[in-house]
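Sorry, I am new here, but would you mind making up a protein's amino acid sequence and the tokens describing how it folds?
***
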Amino acid sequence: MILKPDRRSVVTGLITAAIASPAILQAKTPSEKVNLACCGIGGRGGAVVKELYATGLVNIVALCDTDMDSPQTKEIQALFPNAPTFRDFRQMFDKMGKDIEAVSIGTPDFSHFPIAMQSMAMGKHIFCEKPMGHSFHQVQLMMEAEKKYKVAAQMGNQGHSGQGYFQFEAWTKAGIIKNVTKITTFMNSPRRWHGKSFPGYLPEQPIPAGLDYDSWLSSAMPHPYNKGYMIGEWRSWYDFGNGALGDWGAHIFDNAHEFLKLGLPTEVDPVHMVGHSPYIYPQNSTLVFRFPARGDMPPVEMSWYEGQQNLPPLPEGFGTSVVDPNIPPPTSGSIDTKVLAPGKVIYGEGLTFKGGSHASELEIIGGPRAQEVLSHLPVVPQSPSNHFMNFVRACKGEEACRSNFAVAGPLCQAMALGIIAQRLNTKVVFDPKTQRIVNNKAADAMLRGDRPRKDWEQYYRL
């Protein structure tokens, strides 16, 4: 269902009314529940719905998914049988905009942006799975919208509310983590596209009866339906997903990015690439991100290793992987802890740290300061709320989102630059002041992402 002029007028009217109504933006009293609409309720989206409902502080008032006939979406529908259902988020807002106070977005990477932009323009708080958007420019617009519409916005890198987050903050303030010059990050577990190659895009297949494929495509480049794009397979394709980096980078180096104030890199260099393709992500790749000095903090070189045959160099004494037992299972493949679980090594002044993903805590594994520091580690405060409770309390005016878009946006933009380097298999030189890629016109054009489909341009103007 392409957005017709009459629907566009209705949506624009709803947005205008929402902006004009201060009541929508007022914080709720602590005793009230937040009326939540859920976009994307299968797979990871369904898990997000359950986690938000488990806070005990939300009413599920609407369910939206482009395929309401799948077993995954039927499970969520059965849990909330009284919630109206929709296949198109635009219809949901047309009919229920005034009844919705917050929105969860658990859809594929490429479709986060239009849902988030319309939600924020209508004064709705949003919980958006990572990465925030599909392109550098989309993320920039989402950051600006969060500020403009004064909503609570949380990116779904849930480790950002766990003990690893609070430990990194405490250790940085105490000077334990300081003068970091090198970070090694890695994700070497199987991914959907490993072992596959395609000479082009997939051939057209009949659209399943229960799927609203036009709504599924949202603002993305048009492609004929093929099941090879669906149910998580979208992550393999540049046109739809953000690959292993967009999926796991936000879980692995997010704390370092925030507390070391890394911001945006000046260079991203694909120093190793196997199985480069113009359509899907490579089989193995190593990217080197170079972040400039920030105040009195030195420049940082961060290396990203992905692929099953692309293990990183590890320091002596690394030992076994750090694994957070609360990490949700991947939608495909597995986390192979016998080889190397996703994680990182951080090289600071006189200390070397190893860490895992999500909320896992750092361990000191070497360096001349190790014995001195281990004897007087600071107390790490317990998290007052998990990531989902933090968001709901932010909707109610009780807390601030820890992974708000002002924090998560530059992280996602740094990853977007890495994806451009992967896609072109070429070094990217970036000017953070002008926000332009200065050494390659094709790469610079990719900052804006693909041109939106007809009648979806409006989301770039909100």
About this structure: The radius of gyration is 22 Å. The chain has 14 helices and 15 strands. The CA atoms of residues 94 and 339 lie 50 Å apart.
